[in-house]
Design brief:
The structure holds two protein chains of two kinds.
Chain A lengths: L3 H33 L15 H4 L7 H13 L10 H33 L5 H9 L6 H11 L10 H8 L16 H4 L1 H21 L3 H9 L4 H12 L1 H16 L3 H7 L8 H12 L2 H32 L1
Helix pairs in contact in A: 1-15, 3-4, 4-9, 4-12, 5-9, 6-13, 9-12, 10-11, 12-15, 14-15
Chain B lengths: L1 H45 L21 H8 L6 H31 L5 H9 L7 H13 L6 H24 L4 H9 L4 H9 L4 H17 L2 H6 L8 H9 L6 H32 L5
Helix pairs in contact in B: 1-12, 2-12, 3-6, 3-9, 6-9, 7-8, 9-12, 11-12
The chains are: A mainly alpha, B mainly alpha.
């Protein structure tokens, strides 16, 4: 009991924060789940229990529906027999395409830049500062210029990259960018890669620099070529960095919102789950379905984050 | 004899090394060029006059440099951002200050004045950083209405403070973990209480962490769109991101004005980045746990 005088004040000092987070993070998440399971489908709030919102987001238990659901997501083919909300099916497809293009793009670009900078180049500080600067710019402002750069208008009305391609005699590179019916969502990942590659570069560069020089030297003494030093000594050391980068990119990807709104507005052709949720709340006033989508976003992110948090805390304790 | 035989190989190796170096710098410079391309477009377009702002000449430099678009985007009657920049300032200053101070106190306790279960409490707080805020948005707007919370910016300030707790706590906690234990122990030996130890031992060495955290919060609150678009319903109270999206989302807005507006809305965070890049970078690394 004497000890409580020692640690009691600390707990007291942190308790307002604990309380705020308990209410506004955990409490509101619970409330949101409750809304998602209600029949609050119009402006008027009601209290009835209803799983109808989820029923529109998942295929029914019939095998045929399940197959059709996944077929629509993978192929982008619009099925008439599917009972699931067609906009949602499109959203999930977009989210997957965007995630694959964004995560792969940012890892490859960021990783390569770090690799090139690793050995030290003159002007490293300047290069780093340039690559990282997009992190300081909002997705809304970046979206203004990227929407123009990736403008798909044909012929005389061409702007941005398409116009540049024409001028450089690279007309065959012209494309419809984010309005492409099949791969448009992947084009939306281009500005996201632009924005986040510098960050990934910084993470990897810290990783590269964290490899003890003696290890590299020892491998060189054994007659390993520079490439083999990287492959067998440096790259294995980067696995934790890659894991962090994957988690960071994956979780940004799941909730991507501002960038999509800035470039595509509310169009279905660029819509992602987070944008659909916004439309449902603001335009359709379908609170239960909006809350259901928000809950699914949270589940997606939790599956990614919770094991990672536990792993991080455990390795912190071991250290 | 041997030297003569070796020379060509050495020369070849040297040539190859030089070629590799050129390729490396070429690749780095090309990447820098691509990263800066949007900036070029923004600048060039924003300095064109209305008559010159034609898509077909979009990549070219302005024939006559004009400040019309900047003037219009700054405080023009139709597209002026000035009132919204003021809103953003009124939002970002108190929210940044309060959440940074909270983070400092929390970080201190959770690293240097631990209580039983404080690591679990830290995890409990940390999770709040990763949630998609969509998952609290509907109840949050509802609760504001239910308790009659003052409308507009106060709601937004409150939200940024609450949801900023995890990241600010994380940055300070990692920073305070590097303070030598002897310093804290010495204060304890002197029977200094918790607040005294914080005030006279910890706070004086906290400046770098305050700078890092404040920059992080300033940047993310200034750039926030999600909270603002859900919480602030009165257009007169919009922060600059929402106003910018509204201006540029419309097809009638001349594109030179759009580009100038995007630049104006980004200037504060860019200036902070240019002046304090080193601290910005440290915040990013501390937030490596975050996205």
């Amino acid at each position: 009991m004497r000890k409580i005088r020692r640690w009691g004040p600390g707990l007291l000092l942190v308790s307002p924060s604990i309380l705020l987070v308990a209410v506004f993070v955990y409490g509101l998440i619970g409330w949101n789940v409750k809304v998602s399971l209600s029949d609050w489908r119009q402006a008027q709030e009601t209290s009835g229990f209803d799983t109808g919102a989820y029923a529109e987001l998942f295929p029914s238990a019939e095998l045929g529906q399940v197959v059709e659901f996944f077929r629509s997501i993978v192929t982008g083919y619009q099925s008439d027999t599917l009972t699931t909300d067609p906009a949602w099916v499109v959203d999930v497809r977009h989210a997957l395409l965007f995630t694959i293009a964004f995560v792969a793009g940012a890892l490859i670009v960021g990783g390569s830049l770090a690799f090139l900078l690793d050995k030290g180049v003159s002007g490293e500080g300047m290069f780093r500062a340039i690559y990282l600067f997009p992190m300081a710019v909002s997705f809304i402002a970046a979206g203004v210029v990227w929407r123009w750069l990736m403008n798909p208008a044909p012929g005389d009305r061409s702007t941005g990259f398409n116009l540049l391609f024409d001028k450089l005699g690279l007309g065959f590179l012209r494309n419809e960018w984010y309005l492409g019916p099949d791969w448009g969502a992947a084009a939306l990942a281009v500005p996201a890669v632009w924005a986040l590659s510098g960050y990934i570069m910084a993470l990897y560069l810290a990783g590269f620099r964290g490899v003890p020089e003696e290890l590299r030297e020892a491998a060189r003494m054994d007659g390993a070529s520079e490439w083999r030093v990287y492959r067998h000594v440096v790259f294995p050391h980067l696995r934790p960095v890659t894991l962090s980068a994957l988690i960071i990119l994956g979780h940004i990807s799941i909730k991507v919102f501002d960038l999509i709104v800035a470039i595509g507005g509310k169009q279905l052709i660029t819509q992602t789950p987070a944008v659909y949720m916004w439309i449902l709340i603001y335009d359709a006033r379908d609170y239960a379905k909006g809350a259901a989508i928000a809950t699914l976003l949270l589940v997606g992110i939790s599956v990614l984050i919770i094991p990672y948090l536990i792993y991080t805390v455990r390795s912190e304790r071991e250290a | 004899m041997t030297t003569v035989a070796l020379e060509p190989t050495i020369r070849r190796r040297r040539r190859r090394r030089r070629a590799a170096k050129v390729a490396k710098y070429g690749a780095l410079a090309f990447a820098a060029l691509i990263v800066l391309l949007p900036v070029y477009v923004l600048l060039v377009a924003s300095f064109k006059s209305g008559t010159e702002a034609d898509p077909s000449r979009a990549w070219a430099l302005p024939q006559a440099w004009s400040l019309d678009a900047w003037r219009e985007a700054w405080n023009g009657e139709q597209y002026g951002l000035l009132p919204f920049l003021k809103n953003s300032l009124k939002l970002v200053i108190p929210a940044t200050l309060i959440s940074t101070m909270l983070g400092s106190l929390n970080g201190f306790v959770l690293s240097r004045w631990k209580f039983p279960g404080s690591d679990v409490v830290f995890l409990f707080l940390l999770f709040g950083m990763f949630i998609p805020y969509q998952a609290v948005m509907i109840p949050l707007t509802q609760i504001f209405i239910d308790v009659d919370f003052p409308e507009g910016l106060p709601r937004l300030i409150f939200a940024h403070i609450v949801y900023g707790i995890p990241i600010t706590t994380l940055i300070f906690r990692s920073y305070y973990a590097t303070i030598p234990e002897d310093l804290i122990e010495a204060a304890r030996m002197d029977r200094a209480g918790m607040l005294r130890t914080y005030w006279s031992v910890v706070l004086p060495v906290s400046a770098p962490a305050f700078v890092v955290t404040a920059i992080w919060q300033f940047t993310s609150i200034w750039n926030d769109f999600l909270f603002a678009v859900f919480i602030v319903t009165d257009p007169a109270k919009w922060p600059v991101t929402v106003a910018l999206n509204n201006t540029t989302g419309s097809f009638v807005t001349p594109y030179n004005v759009q580009m100038a507006a995007a630049l104006i809305a980004s200037l504060p965070t860019l200036v902070v980045y240019i002046l304090m890049g080193r601290y910005f970078m440290r915040g990013l690394m501390a937030g490596a746990l975050k996205g």
